[in-house]
Design a protein that fits this description.
heterodimer; A: 74 residues; 4-stranded mixed β-sheet; 4 strands; 26% strand; B: 349 residues; mainly alpha; 16 helices; 75% helix
Chain lengths: 74, 349
Amino acid sequence: MKIEIYGTGCAKCKKLFENAQAAAGSDALVSKVEDIQQIMNAGVMLTPAIAIDGEVKSAGKVLSVDEIKKMISK
Amino acid sequence: MIASAPKDEHNSELRRIALVVCAVVLWAVLYAWLETLARWLTIIVLHLDTASQFGAAVAFFIYEAPKVLMLLVLVVFGVGVVRTFFTPEQTRKMLAGRRESAGNVLAALLGVVTPFCSCSAVPLFIGFVTSGVPLGVTFSFLVSAPMVNEIALVLLFSLFGWKIALLYMSTGLAIAMISGWVIGRLKMERFVEDWVYKMQVGSSDCASPHQSWDERIGLGLDAVRDIVGKVWPYVLAGIAVGAGIHGYVPENFMASIMGKSAWWAVPVAVLIGIPMYSNAAGIIPVVQALLEKGAALGTVLAFMMAVIGLSLPETIILRKVLKPQLIAAFIGVVGCGILIVGYLFNILL
């Protein structure tokens, strides 16, 4: 599984990245996308956003570890 | 579990709504008794004389701090729930291809209810202009979103009363509409960084519009945790400074510096306000105390709008997508609007 965190590097984005890493453990590859062109390509207008396997699941919110876990298991 | 899911969901939804109703009733009772409670605490428990300087300052704090925090929790929750009905994606769709004047009005109004944080100002800006929202209309949104926000309105309402809150909201919206329109008339599209219009923008609408009330209430509570959790120290610090001014600064002390007769006070207030970075929560209690000591309302309003509406961090973020000329036009036009509002109220009231 592939998890991407979209954000231009603000504190909230870092937090979401950490939460995603904690939630995914070794099951998924979590990466940060900081390039504005790529962020716009994904259609993200509110940062931070999280995409799982290329699909944007949530935008503009720092999800908790549990919330991300729930998303992954779906 | 899957089979019974709809019923479970329905039950938990009803339970949550009932809980919210109970909480609101409890809130109202506490709020109604707050003044009595605060007075009892100050006079009977702390043995303070409210006529003394220290007593007046403490009494002010003991009453105002819980009052503002309570209102903040209620309104942030309400706005948090309302915001679940709006996403930037929908706002963009509503604004794309709009004609200018009507678009400016709509953009300013949507700025109040669309979730916004200055850290996502850049993707929002690109998303708007590349999908055909006119530049001026985009600016109406960008001006109104930070300036007319729920925190400012709560503080204005609780410390100044509904008239000034309404005044702030309507003039703030007017500034957003008109300055966006002016920026549109100036034809400044060429001062947007060139790469912006070449962007390929995908679309995604992840926040589904069909959320249950359970989820909406949950999101409202998240907003309370997030926003009130962040601003309460500012609110308390602001009220503490305000309380100090309330108790110790003599009556009419501010009249000579920030009074009506000092014509230069409005521009100075705006110039000081622009680089100052504070949110509404910290600045409004201080400003209220100044007003009480003889500062003129127009000057105070102008100062507040400059601090809240034009922030240095946001302009630095926007510099990524705007050339300096457009940044200057943005600050200039909005700053002039604030100046006019300041003078207008000093003359009218």
